[in-house]
Amino acid sequence: MKSKPPIKKYDITQCALYKCRTKRRLEYLLCLKPGDLKVIDTIIGYHSFEINKKNSQEKRQITAPDRTLKLVQRRILYLLQRVIRPDWLISGEKQKCYIDNGKAHLDGRYVLTIDIKKFYDNCTREPVYQFFAHELKTSFDVAEILTNIVTYNSGIPTGCPTSQIMAFYAYENMFTEIHDLAQRYNCKFTLYVDDMTFSSQETFSKKQLTRLIDCTLRKYGHKPKYAKVKYYTPSDYKPITGTVVTPEQVLSVPNGLQKTIYDAFQKLKPAVEEINCSLEEAKQILSLKGQIQAARNIEAGKFPEILRLTNQIKTPNVEGVPKQKNSIGRHSRKINIPQKHAVK
User: Fold this and answer.
1) What are phi and psi of 155, to 5 degrees?
2) What is this structure's pTM?
3) Between 20 and 30 A from 340 (CA), which of 12, 76, 118, 195?
4) CA angle 323, 328, 334 (to 5 degrees)
């Protein structure tokens, strides 16, 4: 399979939002009609729902934007996405995913993983505003509007297109300081949202590095989740953001995902012999295929027999007509503020 060519990126001073000083200019950049910013507050709406945490019985609360707001947030994401960011940032980066986080540490014999406790809950509005006003050097009123668009209840919501990139930019100084600490200990550092991973070919002091990271996080209003601070030696299997680095230093599918796939297939196995399966079974098969593909992205060719048998099951169409994605890119049409909100 051909790898995609690397995305061309540019310095933040070349971002279209850099030094945006007028509402008229901001409306143009956000693909809004003249005057729409006067009623921008009326489209700021969210809805909440719960999803299952991976390989866990726990639930995760998601706060997602309503449709029109989501379109505006996607436009902001598009304008920021091609800005150069550090190589050690994995989350929110095009052509990178959680598997790259595991791959980055394949040569690390000693690994330390630290999660930030309730990261999004403690991402406040002020650092977001400071990013727009001082890093992008927008006018204060433009910074205020942009902050209002990407934050909610004085924080960064979990389910927005802009959530990951804004959480990074709001606390970029904090993460840069942590990267510098890693270098002092001759460790490679990667960041995936709030998962921080440090690895080295040589042993290092887990206690000292963890203490210094704790101090740095607290300086910015965060702290580690101590139950998830883990140190691994060369003989250990090292779980890293949905992957596992084995003692032989190869990437492996986590046991949790393997068990989920085996259990799901056992429930669906009788359907292999059926002429047609039910709509509910078809949905479960679709989910199982997605889990198998996730496993095969980590280990090529994983679960060949389960995939073969699953593909034999005749299913009704549960996917329906593919949805057309709303593209808010370079040649976007105007975003339509609903008529009831429009300026008269």
Assistant:
1) -150, -175
2) 0.88
3) 76
4) 105
Q: With H, G, I as helix, E, B as strand and everything else as coil, classify residue 46.
A: strand
Neighbours of 49 (CB within 10 A): 11
Q: Are 156 and 193 in contact (CB under 8 A)?
A: no
The alpha-carbon radius of gyration of the chain (Å, integer) is 23
Rounded (10°) CA dihedral 234, 239, 244, 250: -30
| Neighbour-count burial for 254-263, b at 16+ CB within 10 Å, e otherwise | beebbebbee
Residue whose entry in the numeric block shows the structure tokens 């295929």: 289
In 71-194, the DSSP E strands lie at 110-115, 188-192
Look-up of token digits 């977001």: 128
**In Å, what is the CA distance from 118 to each residue of 61, 156, 211, 226, 276?**
12, 12, 19, 12, 45
Beta-strand (E) ranges in 132-218? Answer: 188-192, 195-200
Instruction: Single out the residue of 324, 317, 254, 327 nearest to residue 291, CA to CA.
Output: 254
